[in-house]
Amino acid sequence: MSEALKVRLAGIEMKNPLMLASGIMGSYASSLNRISEFAGAVVSKSIGLKPVEGYDNPAVINYSHGLINAVGLASPGAEAFAKELKDYVLYAPLIVSLFGSSPEEFSKLVEYFPFSDGFELNLSCPHAKNVGLAVGNDPDLVYEIVRAVKKVTEKPVFAKLSPNVRDIVEIGKAAEEARADGVVAINTLRGMKIDIFAKKPILSNVSGGVSGEGIKPIAIKCVWDLYEELSIPIIGCGGVTSWKDVIEFMLAGAKAVQVGSALYYSNRIFYSLKESLIAYTRMTGERLEEIVGIAHRE
Fold first, then answer.
1. Is the peptide bond before 186 cis (omega within 30 degrees of 0)?
2. How many domains, in total, are found in the chain?
């Protein structure tokens, strides 16, 4: 383990700044276990109180610079998911992602996961009804949700923000004022793809969330803007495919960086990123925590 890669995120000790993004590895602890061997932390699939079937296939499609998905927050429900996560072996800290339509739902969900190391609040999914972005585009509601969760847990709480809002900094400030321990920027952007031969949308839900390397410049700008205004940690997310992307996010102000869509192309992406970051720190002689936000210096 390289000491130069270690970061401390809202009290969570991580062996490196790489985090599994929510929703990528499904609802099985065995999948999270596999990733946690090399990741600094893993974030579970977003979970609600009751089971959700999600949208019909096709729910995920490729485009030239990433993916578009409309899974619809499919999940087994909090009770069943809590039982499944008992098999997580804790090679790395576990952050449970929660979704709901009200402050009461979010705070109720916390009770099911006393074994988690922290919580990520999904305030940003662009293709689910009455949850995600539907609640995360209102700064007052974001404040109430974060405050409700903070009242029922002492563990770190991270608000995952959307680029599809009028002002992501305004939403980030609302989360900070409610005592969020950090924010995650960003979730997917709204998008769609049309089959030119069938002459109709490809996704069953018509539109979905765009992820992958094509959204990285947008994510970097969001992290930059949030770092300028917030004092709580920022977790960068969106389009990471190489170690250079990780460094770019950290220079923009991210304390940690989530990786998601890249796993569709390489199941060894976390190992590859970790080894490349070790080489980078040996070359520069720096600890990764030392470079966070450096690009903001005049």
1. yes
2. 1
